[in-house]
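>> received
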Amino acid sequence: MRAAALVLAVLYGSAWAADGKATTAYAHLLDDKRDEIVRSEFVPTEEQPVGEVRLIRRGQAVVMQTVLHTALLKRVVAEIRKKELASWPPERKGHGDAQEYIDAITTAQQRIQERYRQREDRGDRRQKMLIEFILSGRASIVAISEPELEEKSGHMRVISRRSIAILELSRTYVRGGIYEIAWDALRLDRKESRKLLEPMLPPESPSSREP
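>> returned
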C-alpha cells in the first residue's frame, strides 16, 4: 500500500482518539451535521434494499455516501469489488487506488463481521457499513466506518460512526468514483450526471484557497 494512503485500523473505540492528525485534517470533511442531500436512491431496489446511496453537499465538499444495512454485507462487498475491477482496469489511471479501496472495504467487512459475532442483540441479522467518497478543494479521501443508524420515514439516518479507515486517494480516482456510483446506483446517464455533478464538484486540481 503506498504511503499516500492513511489507514486507521480501529476496531474498538474512536479513530479520532487514535490519531490526532486525522482529527485535524479531516474533522470538517466528516462532520455531517449540515449535510444537504441532493439525490438518493435505494440499492439495488426500493422493494428489496440492502442500503441507500446519497449525493450530498457537505460545506465546500461533495460526498457520495453509501449506507449499507444488510444481512448480506459480505456478498454486497464482493459485488462492489467486482464493479471496481471492471471500472478501473490496469490501464486506467486510478487502478492502484481502486485496489487500495477494495482491500480496505474487504478488511472493514471482516472487522464488522467479527464485531457482529460478539453482539448481545441476536435479533437483528443486519450488518452496517458506511462508505463516503469525499472531494473538496484540497482533499480527496474515502472514509469507511461502522455506523449507528436510525430509521426515519423509511430512510436510515446516520447517528454516529465508528471509523475503520480513511484513505487518501488521488483526485482522479475519487472524482471518477463519484461518477461511477452516480451512473450505477443513482441511475444517471452520462449527460444527466455531468449536468448534476459538474456545477457541484471542486476543480480537478487541488485548490490553495480553501482553508
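>> The radius of gyration is 16 Å.
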